[in-house]
What we know:
Blueprint (H helix, E strand, L loop, with lengths): L2 H4 L2 E2 L3 H11 L8 E7 L6 E6 L2 E7 L7 H16 L5 H12 L1 H14 L14 H12 L8 E4 L9 E4 L4 E4 L10 H16 L14 H7 L5 H12 L1
Helix pairs in contact: 2-3, 3-4, 6-7
Bound molecules: zinc ion.
Zinc ion binds next to helix 7.
Amino acid sequence: MSPRTRNSNLVPGGVALFHRVFTRIGCEGRPPHFRVEFYPYSSLVLTIRRREDLLIVRLSDLLSRAPLGVLESAAALLLSRVYRRRLPRALVQPYLTYARSGRTRSRISRMRGRRVRPKQAAPQGRQYDLAALFDQLNSKYFSGELRRPHIGWSVRGWRRQFGCYDPGPNQILLNRRMDRSGIPQFVVEYVLFHEMLHVKHPTRRSGCTLVSHSPEFRAEEKRFDQFTLARKVLDHLAR
Ligand SMILES: [Zn+2]
């Protein structure tokens, strides 16, 4: 990690930019004091907080080479939160377009690969060994060709999710709550298989909850032997 990413950097011209946008979104009077910095978040994040009479703005340093229009749009979004302004679409759109573009998405995932370390999580649970299950599923459904990512049981039980694949650290985690004898092995296998399909069909999106399931993905998922039954058991567990 270079010193540049370890600390936040002031955004050149950032204060003037916020003053300009402050007026442009219809705020009146003297603008507040700002401190505007780029910050090495592990995703595209914008934050604003108040400390006495100072507004501290942090923009993900992914934006450090973004065009001025995108920075103005980001500033407008942040100021609209603080001052409760409705923004004209023309002011919102540049940031949204930038954030949703394929290029930005792939920069985010490359950056997450560098900044997000895999969580400490062991594949060997009390009941099931995920590394062994991975190898079996790999040879059965993927001709043994899938490269094994980091795999483990989540450290704590999750309420909502059974598993996730995070492409940043290249890690599959399964919900620890399934590591018990009351859960049939094929159910654990199905959840692992699903996450393995995410390894096989990478999306540009990062994190656990944003992954998408293409029709191709859904079709391939049905190749799992006890697909219907596994889904039924999981639906039941989710209740
Ligand atoms: Zn999924």
